[in-house]
Amino acid sequence: xxxxxxxxxxxxxxxxxxxxxxxxxxxxxxxxxxxxxxxxxxxxxxxxxxxxxxxxxxxxxxxxxxxxxxxxxxxxxxxxxxxxxxxxxxxxxxxxxxxxxxxxxxxxxxxxxxxxxxxxxxxxxxxxxxxxxxxxxxxxxxxxxxxxxxxxxxxxxxxxxxxxxxxxxxxxxxxxxxxxxxxxxxxxxxxxxxxxxxxxxxxxxxxxxxxxxxxxxxxxxxxxxxxxxxxxxxxxxxxxxxxxxxxxxxxxxxxxxxxxxxxxxxxxxxxxxxxxxxxxxxxxxxxxxxxxxxxxxxxxxxxxxxxxxxxx
Length: 312
Ligand SMILES: Cc1cc2nc3c(=O)[nH]c(=O)nc-3n(C[C@H](O)[C@H](O)[C@H](O)COP(=O)(O)O)c2cc1C
What we know:
single chain; Nuclear Transport Factor 2, Chain: A; Pnp Oxidase, Chain A; six-stranded mixed β-sheet
């Protein structure tokens, strides 16, 4: 009679994923073991699997796994599992959100002489990010020249020239980094919808404000007024304390709102789309302040007074 592998699979699984005892896997996997993700098509050997588990455990140190079910056939085993953990460190290039997450998967194991020779998993790392509300954009988040890039890149100068024809306002996007206010100048603000009140802003990942912004639950967006030319320079710079010379106050959730702005809002971050160099933050507005001050206008690197606009 065939011996059940269930206890060994369960104990090995929990030892590796929950305790970080990666070498426990050696007792369960055959020498030619491979694991293929159905989501990405990527195949790794046991070293790759160990690296993947180590990366997940590093980012989610309190990872806890439940084996929901194990269904055994003659030469195949199906494992259904649920994992929970707190996003404490960088994972797949995404800074810690501090959020707790639950993710589920199912694996099909092919056996050979009582060991796992092949594994197919319905899950890959992006599922964890998706569960955190972080979605890579298809074809953009793929590595340089990688799968999904099926269009030739547009000439950079053409793209810049196109953007120079677009007129925007200027905002300062803010957040709190612990007790320290942080912010950067951004003209990528856009209203998404009025009902529900959604807005978006795109922030470069290399910005020093980015890590704090990414892990915040809320952010502030200040539409600058015509009197705030100096404020743009400060927030477009890498100055250490950009708020030192400014008057500002906190929104209801603590986001810094700049006094003298044409308008300010505080919004709850709902999605963090990964667009390679930038993250698109989609936010639900929870609070807004509107002043009489005319907004600043920005076009092709220059700033203008909106009170002087000529109507067509
Ligand atoms: C008018 C204007 C618009 C800008 N828009 C954006 C933007 O939408 N997103 C972004 O990431 N950076 C934008 N920048 C650049 C940042 O403000 C700049 O890189 C800043 O130094 C970042 O500061 P930090 O690294 O301290 O966060 C803009 C700059 C200016 C002057």
